[in-house]
Task: inverse folding
């Protein structure tokens, strides 16, 4: 192996659980502050997320119809009025966002052996970078590839953008979104490594592993990333930016996933180390 490419969400940390819990904490406050019921609130969030093509749009709350009706369109005013809800989200995120066991130590050992580590995510670049920094693992990554946003996103004019080092994040076109194998072909080409010398780790059989197999890189399934409370997944489905076509596409991919053969299965991230050692000894 001359290059390790890793998915982030539910491969390095449990995104489903931390984001769903943070959103639920915020929603509980919003129903009281806005005087709307939970179903109406979730439908409003879904519409905003679909507008921007992402379920993690920063400050999506400012675009909610119920917020505009009650507080107008001044973000400064909205932030003051909705501070309990925004605080609830941030508090839950800080509490729930944490690495899977052994991730930091494993990344440190791999980096110490001189193995280049590349991240790939379909999260917004700023959100992904925040998580790498917050979790203290950004130092192990040579670069982060991120899917280009569907459209320009609103910014908080009162807040300085999180400083991202020049050249650390590279964007890839949306036409290469998972499970298009062109994504991994593109990354390996940019990094100057052959497909046969690259390993890709991800939690989704239908998106990550199918893509890796079709691209011809070593497919390493992070099985542990599928272990989460599916009630929390149900929360995310209610606010998803996915269109009906996206849902149908995902169902079709999941049906194909049953036939996907992976090269290795990880039950913990640290399972990667003996596999790397073994591959290094092969002629």
Result:
């Amino acid at each position: 192996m001359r290059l390790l490419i890793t998915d982030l969400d539910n491969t390095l940390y449990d995104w489903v659980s931390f984001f769903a819990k943070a959103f639920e904490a915020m929603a509980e406050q919003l129903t009281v502050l806005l005087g709307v019921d939970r179903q109406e609130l979730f439908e409003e969030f879904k519409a905003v997320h679909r507008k921007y093509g992402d379920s993690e749009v920063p400050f999506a709350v400012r675009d909610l119809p119920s917020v505009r009706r009650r507080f107008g369109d001044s973000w400064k005013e909205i932030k003051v009025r909705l501070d309990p809800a925004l605080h609830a989200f941030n508090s839950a995120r800080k509490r729930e966002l944490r690495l899977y066991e052994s991730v930091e130590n494993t990344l440190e050992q791999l980096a110490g052996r001189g193995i280049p580590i590349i991240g790939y995510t379909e999260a917004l670049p700023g959100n992904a970078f925040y998580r790498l920094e917050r979790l203290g693992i950004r130092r192990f990554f040579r670069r982060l590839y991120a899917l280009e946003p569907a459209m320009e996103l609103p910014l908080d004019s009162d807040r300085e953008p999180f400083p991202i080092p020049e050249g650390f994040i590279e964007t890839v076109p949306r036409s290469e979104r998972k499970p298009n194998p062109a994504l991994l072909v593109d990354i390996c080409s940019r990094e100057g490594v052959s497909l046969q010398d690259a390993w890709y780790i991800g939690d989704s059989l239908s998106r990550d592993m199918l893509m890796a197999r079709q691209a011809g890189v070593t497919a390493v399934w992070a099985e542990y990333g599928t272990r989460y409370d599916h009630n929390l997944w149900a929360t995310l489905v209610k606010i998803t930016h996915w269109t009906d076509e996206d849902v149908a596409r995902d169902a079709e991919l999941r049906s194909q996933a049953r036939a996907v053969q992976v090269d290795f299965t990880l039950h913990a991230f640290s399972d990667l180390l003996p596999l790397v050692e073994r591959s290094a000894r092969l002629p």
Summary: Strands lie at 3-7, 117-121, 143-147, 169-172, 198-202, 218-222, 264-266. Residues 15-34 form the longest helix (20 residues). The chain has a mean pLDDT of 92. The radius of gyration is 20 Å.
